[in-house]
Specification:
The protein has a two-stranded parallel sheet with strand order 1-2. A two-stranded parallel ribbon has the order 3-4. Helices cover 45% and strands 7% of the residues. The chain contains nine helices and four strands. The chain starts with 6 loop residues before the first helix and ends in a 10-residue tail after the last helix.
Length: 211
């Protein structure tokens, strides 16, 4: 994330450790906290945040009054990432997955060919048919313009649902993204466990450069 209180330190750590595969965690749902962020940009961004946080269905709706605000916020975040990291992001995903909101997707602001995070993947029966149909249509639309992993899962859900073996099996023949949050103690413990290391031994590990 950029324009946040710790963004500059995060960028320095990434460069110090020569991390090449670093993406932009596009933010449309949290106010910018960096004190150096221009006030005009903050105001554009506040309008987006207020709209998207109004209710859980707001992201499905296109608000023509926010077209300029989304364009300004996206452009500023890309430019700030480039300034901090001296390069463009390897891929784009979104805080609370709001990079998939209707306003941003329909704007087509991201250049064609950009590596983008898809919707969560689910097994049959895990979500309603309407939910799965909507995600399927969005992913098909994304795939026509952008580059996506074949599947996308959340580690903690895989652990709790005892389905990591099935995800690992998919990863032997497909590009699978596994989202992790090491600040969650259960995830950190699993990531450092022998069980996880055994799973990784049988898989090709990489980042969005493989997509």
């Amino acid at each position: 994330m950029v324009f946040m209180g710790d963004s500059m330190r995060a960028a320095k750590l990434a460069k110090d450790h020569q991390l090449d595969d670093v993406g932009l965690h596009l933010n449309f749902s949290e106010e910018f906290t960096d004190v150096s962020c221009p006030e005009a940009l903050k105001e554009h961004h506040r309008r987006i945040v207020r709209f998207l946080r109004r209710n859980k269905y707001a992201q499905l709706l296109y608000n023509p009054l926010l077209r300029q605000a989304f364009a300004c916020s996206y452009r500023a975040q890309i430019e700030e990432f480039s300034r901090l990291f001296d390069k463009l992001p390897s891929h784009v995903d979104g805080h609370h997955h709001m990079h998939l909101c209707a306003n941003f997707l329909l704007s087509k602001r991201m250049p064609a060919g950009t590596r983008v995070r898809r919707n969560f993947s689910f097994w049959p029966g895990e979500k309603s048919w309407l939910n799965r149909a909507y995600r399927y249509l969005v992913d098909r639309w994304l795939a026509r313009r952008y580059r996506l992993a074949d599947y996308f899962f959340d580690l903690i859900q895989c652990i709790e649902g005892k389905k990591l073996d099935r995800v690992a099996a998919l990863a032997k023949s497909s590009n699978v993204e596994l989202m992790t949050h090491p600040t969650i103690s259960a995830e950190k413990a699993f990531l450092m466990s022998d069980e996880f290391q055994v799973i990784l031994q049988h898989l090709e590990i990489g980042g969005y450069a493989l997509v």
